[in-house]
Amino acid sequence: MLADRIRGDFPILQQRMNGKPLVYLDSAATSQKPRQVIDALVRYYEEYNANVHRGIYRIAEQATEAYEAARRKVAAFIHAARPEELIFTRSTTEAINLVAYTWGRANVGRGDEILLTEMEHHSNLVPWQMLAAERGATLRFVPFDEQGMLEVAEFDRLLTERTKLVALTQQSNVLGTINPVRELAAKAQLVGAKVLVDGAQSVPHMPVDVQHLGVDFFAFSAHKMCGPTGAGALWARYDLLEAMPPFHGGGEMIMLVHLDRSTYKDPPYKFEAGTPNIADCIVWGEAVDYLQTIGMPAVREHEMQLTHYAMRRLSEIPGLRLFGPESPQRRGGVLAFELDVAHPHDVAQILDQDGIAVRAGHHCAQPLHRRLDISATTRASLYLYNTEADVDALVAGLLGVRKMFSPKPTRVGS
Amino acid sequence: MALDDLYREVILDHYSHPRNKGELPDPDIKVEGANPLCGDELSIFVKLDGGRVAEVRFVGRGCSISQASASMMTEQIKGKTLDEARALAGRFKAMMRGEAVSEDELGELMALQGVRKFPVRVKCATLSWVALEQGMTEFETAKHKVSARASSERP
Fold first, then answer.
1. Between A349, A361, A411, which is nearest B6 by CB?
2. Quick check: A140 pLDDT over 70?
3. What is the complex's ipTM, to 2 decimals?
4. What is the pTM of this model?
5. How far apart are CA A109 and CA A391, in angstroms?
6. What is the CATH number of domain A37-292?
7. How many contacts (CB atoms, under 8 Å) link A and B?
8. Which residues pair with A147 in a beta bridge?
9. The CATH number of B3-143 is which of 2.60.40.10, 2.60.120.40, 3.90.1010.10, 3.40.30.10?
């Protein structure tokens, strides 16, 4: 099994919680980091920390080269046509906001429509609400069915000449659903709509080729794919980036500055004002190397098998309702569920006592939970380092929760 | 941190068998409380008679701590004047902040003391009391029936 081979690379997984091994099942929130990535971060600060794109001395050149090498690696990881199509941001959220503030303000007007889905993370919803309110545009939403699959017939109905943008997640952070992005993007192109994909949950877990998907904008981040927090990226087709106005103004993004006007650099620098997050972007490149060595098809295969196993084991627990597609082929390793006897916060609290880390709440997807008519779920999410033993610990923990919370027949205290 | 401190038997009992659960028609005070962080929701209904809480009920959904705390609160404030209820709310919140309180004054509510050791859960325990305070304040200002809203984020 893949996890047995690489688990030793992750120092944090070697520690014990309350005398038990840490069972980390919250990689959809953030992934753990391998030794290679942690070492690369220390190496940068100890050996060649310097600002990029300006110093005429050895370590500044070294930092600049490493920063641009990371851009090439991250761009190649998602099969961008050229590295200049990849803009470093601080997060997926900032990447989506960049599109809303620049492309959106220049291209979306009164009466235009933005087509989203009911399973979006708040980061791919709230920026569009803000843009729509400012520009007098309308938001439309593609619903999902009982299994958490997008209703493509509704997509077809809602996609019209008025649609300026389709923005959707490639993989739901709650349901695990993998959406048919390529199929929907082809349809969007026919009406002249641009397509933005939130890839925060897909890029870490499966091979992604933005050119094959046929999309226009793609946002994702480092920290869910074995990299550091604070680094994200926006990929967009180069011609789109060239036509877009800048995002933040300041140093690094300019050619010539006069008192009353400035000229801007070409992409990607036009969109990277200020000193970038040099260290974390460089280290992101190290995380890409780490995943490339293992191979993304192998990561996907491992997670699919483990998801299959987890779904079978979870189905043994009475009163547990798992959300999302029934087929592991159509979903990622994100397992959100409710347990009849206990609220997600109680579930997570009790599991924590056994060293099991899961997420409880609405996972930044309140409209999705409202649609399911629940206020919160418990979510266990898998990654390349998780094992069947992790799943077994979760199942044992959940059976313990059931036992603790099953109503006692007699009342005490009154 | 022992889980037993958090999930005392009396708390689990109130969660499984909530007291005074349900809506109250034509209440003098109705207040909806929410904890945006975890999605806990509850509504409290109070009927007054001669300045005292004649009847109080709640409906809601959320974690065991928020629901048990609301259930226990309804038992404690029944028969009290609004001033007495407010004083008890103050003492309860003081306990949750870690201040010294006397067992005589809080009675069964002391069972929630263990929640203090789990800081993210404190707002679950105080939600019903924060909501009650908001409802009472609005009632006293308006001097007639009120329908109020409260959030655990703005205690």
1. A349
2. yes
3. 0.84
4. 0.92
5. 49
6. 3.40.640.10
7. 61
8. none
9. 3.90.1010.10
